[in-house]
Amino acid sequence: MIRKLTLGLASLMFVAVVGFDLASTNAYAAAKRVDCSKVSSELGAGKKAKDIAKEMNISASSVYRCKKKMGVAKSAGTSASAGSTTSTAPSASSSSHKK
Length: 99
Known about the structure:
- By secondary structure, the protein is mainly α.
- It has a domain at 33-80: Arc Repressor Mutant, subunit A, CATH 1.10.10.
- Helices cover 87% and strands 0% of the residues.
- The chain is elongated and about 75 Å long.
């Protein structure tokens, strides 16, 4: 009887410790945010990802993630401006052919 009670209490304590440990790592991860605009400006200045990560106390993968996110945003803006350039180019060339 005492053995079963001891085993049950030990199991409950183990579950409690593991539960608190998992909860604390999630809270820590959520508390640390990365300023992607600062990362982007540092990348634009020519710094390497590892140097930026060390300077900002973040992981290099966070730098690469911001770089990827900013690349997607820039390419979307570039394709929109490229589309507008190509749409005006035919009209300009057609007007030059009319003359």
